[in-house]
Every structure is written in C-alpha cells, then in structure tokens.
Amino acid sequence: MIQKDIARFFLCLIIAILLCRTVPPAVAAETTSPPAAADRNDAYADFLNEAEEETAVQVADPLYYWNKAMFHVNDKLYFWVLKPVATGYKAVVPGLARTGVRNFFHNLATPVRFVNSLLQGKSEQAGVELGRFMVNTTMGVLGFGDPAQKEPDLKRPPAEDLGQTLGLYGLGNGCYLVWPVLGPSTLRDSVGMFGDQYLSPLSSVNEDTVRFGATGLKIVNALSFRLGEYETLKEAALEPYESLRNAFIQNRAKQIRE
Known about the structure:
Blueprint: H1 2-22, H2 37-40, H3 43-53, H4 64-92, H5 95-108, H6 110-119, H7 123-138, H8 162-168, E1 176-179, E2 183-186, H9 187-199, H10 208-224, H11 229-236, H12 240-257
Antiparallel strand pairs: 1-2
C-alpha cells in the first residue's frame, strides 16, 4: 500500500513539475495595494490585507486554472460534506472529548515536529517536544490529556514540518499548488508533506479502513473547532482565491522565519 501511495504521489509530483516547467508563470502573487481595512471592518480583512501588503514574497502560479478549479472543488467539499459532518459531530460529541481527540493526534505527530526541530538546529525545542510526548503519553493517557501544558518548561512550541525545514535551508516555494481535499500548498511544501508522512505513526498502519478512518476523524474533529472561520475569511476577501493564496504564502514565510 505504501508503495502504491509513493507511486501515486510521485506521479502527481512529476506532472506538477512538468506543468510548472512548461507553462509560463504568467500569474504571480498580487502586488497591488489592497482596499482600506476600515472598509472591511473585520479582523479577517486585516489579516488578508497584511498578507496582500507583503510584496517581498511572491509565488509563481502557472497552474492557475487547475488550482482555481481545485479551490472551487474544495469549497464545495467544505460546504456540502465537511461542514455538515463537523456540525453534526460537534452537536453529539462533548467539547472535552473533542479536545481529547485533538490532543491525541497532536501527540501522535510528535515525531514529525521532533525530527524537524532537530533538522532546523532547534535542539531545545526538540527537547521540549520529547518531554511533552513522554509526559502526555503517560500521565495524559496516550496523549488524550495535555498535563505537560501546565509545566512552564513544557509549553507547546511552534509546530515544525519538513516544508519549513526545506525553506530554512534556502529551497524556494516552487509553484503554487492546490490539492483536492488537502488544500493550498507549494511544490516545496508538497515534497515536505510527503516526507513528513514517513514520520507519522499513522502511515505505518497497514489497514486502509483504520488509516483513512483515523485521518477522517482528525480532519472532522479539527474542523469542529473552526466552524465559521472559512466563511468569514471568504466573505472578507474581494478575490477569495487570490487572497487565500497570498495569505497562505505569507503565513508559511512567517513560520519559516520563526
């Protein structure tokens, strides 16, 4: 199964690279001045404005038509499937249980953050990740609890991933990509996402039903805490696709700088 996943990923990656190389990068990040924030009167509008005002980081978008099509696919997927499911899930699962599920998946992803912290030379942060994992797995009952957060020296550090590591090493974004279901990314971050999968314990589960079920639960549970955010962000943007693309690129650049 892993071999099939690898083959599918590299096939998509090769197609993306070929398209990036053959299609002129005619569309790049917007550099025009945004409308005044006062007109939008919204925190999300301020966030989008800040992203649009940043002209230093740009990304090529040669796959504009593919990306915009996938943006609309994901938009429909959110409103038609994910939002109703997450709303129903939130209605029947108590907040304390949902927080426990969120803590469990965060604890499970410790190897990804630990290794990338080391690769970025953040040994102290890696030590915090390891300490949090040991405390939460034992005292927190497999990570459903987060007693480590109560310890001053074990506060949750910023999450690190391979895309950030590659960016820190000087690798550029490559072209912008929007994946079905997974959402916005770049060529560099797509490679990083694939590498991070090898460090995730979920990838070692051979049973497809268990692996996909756990992934689905993780997505729906996380969304249950953020219902309404996407709608607000979308309504605040004059051009949702372009604004979200620029916001994503700026956010990733900020994560790499930090």
